[in-house]
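Supplementary notes (optional reading)

For those who missed the lab, this is the record we used. Protein: TNFR-Cys domain-containing protein. Length: 168 residues.
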Amino acid sequence: IDSCREQEYRDLFGTCKACQQCDAGQELSKECGFGYGVDARCVGCRSARFKEDRGLQKCKPCLDCGLLNRFQKANCSATRNAACGDCLPGYYRKTKLSGFQDMECILCGDQRPAYEPHCKPTSFLFFSPCSPSRTPLQKHLAHIWGNVAAPPFLFSRLKREYRGPWRD
């Protein structure tokens, strides 16, 4: 008996047949190939999975924009992946040496590279959110908050670390 190839199943008569190709939004109900899968049928992609083209490939997991710290522009469907938008406020996309940007947005903070313009310091302690849609009032309030909150924070930190003349 000849063995069936990678994308073939053996029918009830022992003949090798090509595995069924499923439309976009569908995948086979079980593995098919190398003689197995005679009863495999096309079924819809499960929740949070998609497949864009007709073929033998399986449905893939949908992109989760929240896990990437990005806004979601379009929802995932059985035939289309989710589309992510800009970074959430307080995050930025790191640019790789190749010039391309990472999919994941990174929290603005102390480790921000000097060449990254998306997170500008509002004071020497606080970084502004990366969102370019901040109003002048929001910018002003962030600056004031940074200058009001910084002195008490610094004093308590110095007091804890040095336990000098401020000892209780």
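If you only remember one thing from this example: The longest strand covers residues 101-107.
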